[in-house]
Amino acid sequence: MITETAPAASVRTHNLSIYVANRPGALARIAQTFSRRGFNIESLVVSPGKTAELSRMTITVKGEEAGLEQVIQQCSKLVDVVACREHDDAEVVSRELALVKIRVEAPRRAEVLQIAEYFRAKTVDMAEQAMVLEITGTPDKIDAMIALLRKFGIEELIRTGKVIVARGDRET
Predict the structure, then answer these.
(1) Are 39 and 61 in contact (CB under 8 A)?
(2) For position 41, what pLDDT does the model report?
(3) Long-range CB contacts (< 8 A, 24+ apart) of 117-125?
(4) CA-based radius of gyration for the chain
(5) Distance between CA 89 and CA 96 in Å, rounded?
(6) Rounded to whole angstroms, how far apart are CA atoms 86 and 171?
(7) How far apart are CA 82 and CA 122, in angstroms?
(8) Which of 54, 45, 68 is nearest to 19 (CA)?
(9) d(CA 28, CA 166)
(10) Which of 70, 72, 80 lies closest to 19 in space, CA to CA?
(11) How do residues 53-96 score in pLDDT, each as one tens digit?
């Protein structure tokens, strides 16, 4: 007996921008829409929108394309949602910020500073046995720097979510 297996669905990262009215509960309703469809929000940034009445959410999720279309349609139907749109990586500029506190004593500090310089990170605090670096860039760039810094002992790591803006004349 031969059985056919369905082709594996492509799971990839999706970037969404959602403009919402500044009302209590809007974020909870949007997050619930993703949760009901089995999407885990990997990154969420909420910031002021074009006007004081609007906020902009940038949401990054991993999942299948078909399920995401349903989420976008359902989000678009929510009362507080003004616009909901997915963005392809090629059409946006994306950045993330990380603050990394490293336990490092004076003899090894030069090595950490070389790594920071290579990744164009800034030293924002320095004490006798610790320092804090700030790095801005793509998630891959931040992941690469963090991997190199792990050997020094990362005390704290704080990352913002991904923020995106459309390239050129496109609307985000």
Answers:
(1) yes
(2) 92
(3) 119/144, 119/145, 121/145, 124/99, 125/101
(4) 20
(5) 14
(6) 11
(7) 38
(8) 54
(9) 26
(10) 80
(11) 999 999 999 888 878 888 999 999 999 999 999 988 888 899 99
Q: Among 42, 22, 46, 9, which Cα is nearest to 139's? A: 42
1 band by pLDDT with thresholds 50, 70 and 90: low
Burial 95-122 (b: 16+ CB within 10 A, else e): ebebbbbbebeeeebeebbebbeebebe
Read off the tokens for 155: 């005390």
Terminal-residue alpha carbon distance, the chain: 52
Alpha-carbon gap, residue 98 to 133, rounded angstroms: 8
Q: Which two tokens stand for residue 62?
A: 């991993």
The DSSP-derived string for 86-111 is EE-GGGEEEEEEEEEEEE--HHHHHH
Q: Name the pTM for this structure.
A: 0.78
More confident site: 14 or 131: 131
Got the DSSP string for 61-88?
EEEEHHHHHHHHHHHHHSTTEEEEEEE-
What was the pLDDT predicted at 4?
A: 52
**Pairing mode of beta strands 81-87, 163-166:** unpaired
